[in-house]
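Human:
Take a look at this sequence-structure pair and walk me through the tokens.
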Amino acid sequence: MNKNLLITYPGISKRAEFYSPKAVTDLLKIHPEGLMRYPYFLSQADSSVENIDQLFSDIRNGKKEVSGPFTIVHRTRSASDLLFEECDYEGISIGLETDGRKLPELPSRSEIESLLGKEKTFIVVDGRQYRPNTEVFGFQNVYDDTVKTIDGLKLLGVPNDGICLFATPEEICIEVHPLLFGIDVSRELAAKYKSLLIKLTGIKSGDRRWLKTYDKTVLIESSDPNFELLVPGSAHPRLHRPKVSVGQSHFAYGPAAFSDYCGKKRTQEETLKEFKSWLKFIETSFEPSPKLVEAVAELEKSSPDLTKAVTKPSAAGREGGFKPFAEEISLVADEFPLADTVIPSPFQELNKSLGGGFASKSLNVIYGSREEGKASFLLSVALSAVQKYNVLFLSGDMTQKEFGSRILARFKKMTNSDFSAKAGLPGNELNELRKKYSESLSEILKTLSQNLYFRGADSTISSSDVSQITELVKLLPSDRKNLVFIDGISSNYAGSDFFSELKTQALQKDIVFFVSVHTDGLPTQRAHLIEGTDLELLSKCQKHSDAAIVLQSDRTNLQRFLTFAQGKVDPAVAQKIEGSMLKSAGEKRRFDTYSLLRIIHARNGFRQMILYYYQRDLFRFFEGPAMPVSRA
């Protein structure tokens, strides 16, 4: 393919023109300042395209063959950049203060622009006041973020000579040769590059907007088809300094020396050399890097519809501002009423009650007094989700061995009472039994997902300390959604502030929390109604939680359920329910009981009471019939 660059510069009669790469050298002599290019190379046939916006759309949607290096730009970020950039920053709050008062919400973009022209208006970032043009993330941050990205590229198998670096006093541009990906021309190049950029720099898809995490200075749009890049050798129109080539050795001298090097004036001959250096890099031939090719293939497997990665989530957050409800809801009309992904439980009726399953970025609270089966219920949900998600299980009651025993009991149908009853056997028999149990545990561990993590009562982690929990979550692999199960929280800790902290973390870091709370004995006289203690529980959690569940286990709950459902206990119906639930448990009758699980709050579903058959020694639940729960 005859590859052309799409070029724009100050004073151009049209918005952009096509040039062969070598022809840009002469253009640079005429327009030494503000000469820009778009990231992708196009064919000669594209030079006749009149609708540039349509061309960009075709590249973005995989309808046009393109080539070009993988580009990542890091740039200093001012307070106004943070305010207007169409992404959020994890853990950073951004607001506006004018005439000494802080606005409760950001107004519309036009209103913000008007306010920023006033002398007494400040952008507030994490409680600190900034003038709009004041740097929040300076060149030191750009330097550090670039180093991390280069290290990430090397881990993916990119050789030193496969990376080309150019910089100005406020940005560093990384380019990776396309042949290292095994790609000459491709329709999916823009989508693949955007997905790789997101992966490399820790970007997440937030609530309708991208979310920057540890890399705060990366420009998310670096690989977008319509992103303007300063041509190497061309002077920055504001800084009046050219974009110059830098080597990885320049990073050894520190950011101050690096910035000084980039800020020096260059002669025209020197600036032309900068462009020729870039041109030489582009024309160099490389063999594909197997590790890099494999990494991109893995991205395609995890995100098969790569075109979605190119399209930014809508900027309905900050840019939307304070608007009439009708206008705000129209921004999310395609998601209304329920379009969030859900995490299904292993129980069909419960999923139905919750609107398909547990919501993303949610807080789900399970109440019950001690020994009601809360930990067993959480374990059921955790083990059903662990193949697809990272699962961190924290317990304030169980030790590591106790947790392992529960898993062994579930999989091998061997109860804790089995273990303790046989502990008094003679030495040889006991050793044989231990060997058998050890082999059983080893067998289970081979099939147990590597995505399950546990910290219990024998660790130094406090299951009620939200800051410790979030630090643990940071250690989990970054390629999956994180589910955190917190078992055994005392009702003394589980107040509105605790739930508020968890919900904030759920929203900011895309976590799903499950919390079981020990309560005093709960009333069961009219469990089909929401009243009394239920209302007290809701007053603590309803504002922050997405689901609230009360669990009560008792041998007589089958009779209670029938009484609530039909006003009497019909022995024939009771026998039929008992038989079907026993059958679902594989006819294994142990020290079993029945549990009433009552959904007293479901933000995306409805209130319901579900009868469960609970094998207490095997820590297993089997779902039975359900009935609606109403308010008294």
User: Anything to note?
Assistant: Residues 109 and 319 are 6 Å apart (CA to CA). The first helix runs from residue 23 to 30. The chain has a mean pLDDT of 86. The longest strand covers residues 592-602.
